[in-house]
Design a protein that fits this description.
Layout: E1 2-9, H1 13-22, E2 29-35, E3 40-49, H2 51-63, E4 73-78, H3 88-91, H4 99-109, H5 114-133, H6 136-145, H7 149-161, H8 164-191, H9 204-222, H10 229-253, H11 259-298
Antiparallel strand pairs: 1-3, 1-4, 2-3
Length: 307
């Protein structure tokens, strides 16, 4: 469930409220507040509704070009509960989240901060030490902490939305993560004298199939309020983290397998995750556009495509 707050210049609310009412939203609140900075009165439009309905409202506003970022702000808040005339069954539908939720969530996870690098380093230490000792428990602990899924999803989403900055940020975060994993692998390999015991890498075909599944499940989970993203992230971390960890160890202890084939398979697996997630985002984007147009036309408002 979401609350939308749309702040517009004084007098602009009726157009947006009319569109929201045409979409079938039962209750829309409007009040005025004084905003310091621009030093002017603004109208605040508030809508409390289900997650997919909030996404439909925002899509319609953007498709009708009623949102002017220089003069308006949109805030999306997640609600714990909403008791009213609408039945709880329709209120609690979790899919799909508003587009602005998805994009800003991906941006947050792709920020390369010292906290992010610290988590990657700790995860890498556990993962690499587990690979050297052959301890699946340590490896699982490292993979649980290793962030990776959102970086790939950011690239996929940027392809659909043609957001070059998000794509570059996602690639930068992914490359930074891989570099830290390789570096930590080399450091631990230099400290621990034992040879690496783990060698249970998947062959190319099963690994590719898993990557396709991760791309589909990861994209769907990012659009769903109840998606178990942390469990999908564990599978993604195994696809992203194992080969860089093996590379760091092998740089110190020597390569026990042909690196070219393993690196090629690694690149294919990451590409498959991005491609399949891009397809999912593209299909959802097309569905949302069609749904928005149908809702607007049903409410008597001309579709954007008619202009």
């Amino acid at each position: 469930m979401r609350e939308l707050r749309i702040k517009v210049p004084d007098g602009d609310a009726p157009r947006i409220v009319g569109l929201i009412r045409q979409l079938g939203v039962e209750r829309v609140s409007v009040y005025r507040e004084f905003v310091h900075g621009p030093d002017r009165w603004e109208e605040v439009i508030s809508v409390e509704t289900s997650t997919p309905e909030s996404a439909k409202v925002l899509d319609a506003i953007q498709h009708r070009r009623l949102h002017r970022p220089s003069k308006q702000t949109i805030t999306v808040r997640e609600l714990r509960a909403l008791a009213g005339s609408q039945h709880v069954r329709s209120l609690t539908v979790p899919l799909e989240v508003p587009q602005v939720d998805l994009v800003q969530d991906l941006w947050q996870f792709c920020q390369v901060t010292y906290g992010h690098l610290g988590r990657v380093a700790i995860a890498s230490l556990l993962l690499v030490y587990g690979m050297i000792r052959g301890s699946l428990l340590l490896m699982a602990g490292g993979l649980l902490v290793l962030p990776a899924l959102q970086h790939l999803l950011a690239v996929a989403q940027s392809i659909c939305s043609r957001d070059r900055r998000l794509a570059l940020q996602g690639v930068f975060a992914l490359v930074s993560t891989i570099a830290v994993v390789v570096g930590c692998g080399a450091v631990i390999a230099a400290i621990v004298p034992e040879p690496m015991k783990f060698d249970d890498f998947l062959s190319p075909l099963p690994a590719a199939c898993i990557s396709v599944g991760i791309g589909i499940a990861g994209a769907l989970a990012s659009l769903d309020d109840v998606g178990k993203r942390e469990l999908i992230g564990l599978a993604t971390a195994s696809q992203v983290g194992l080969v860089p960890s093996w590379t760091g160890i092998s740089l110190v202890k020597g390569f026990n397998a042909e690196p070219t084939a393993r690196f090629a398979s690694y690149g294919v697996n990451l590409s498959l995750i991005v491609v399949t997630a891009t397809i999912v985002y593209g299909l959802v984007r097309f569905r949302r556009r069609e749904r928005s147009d149908r809702s607007i036309e049903a409410g008597g408002v001309p579709s954007l495509r008619a202009h």
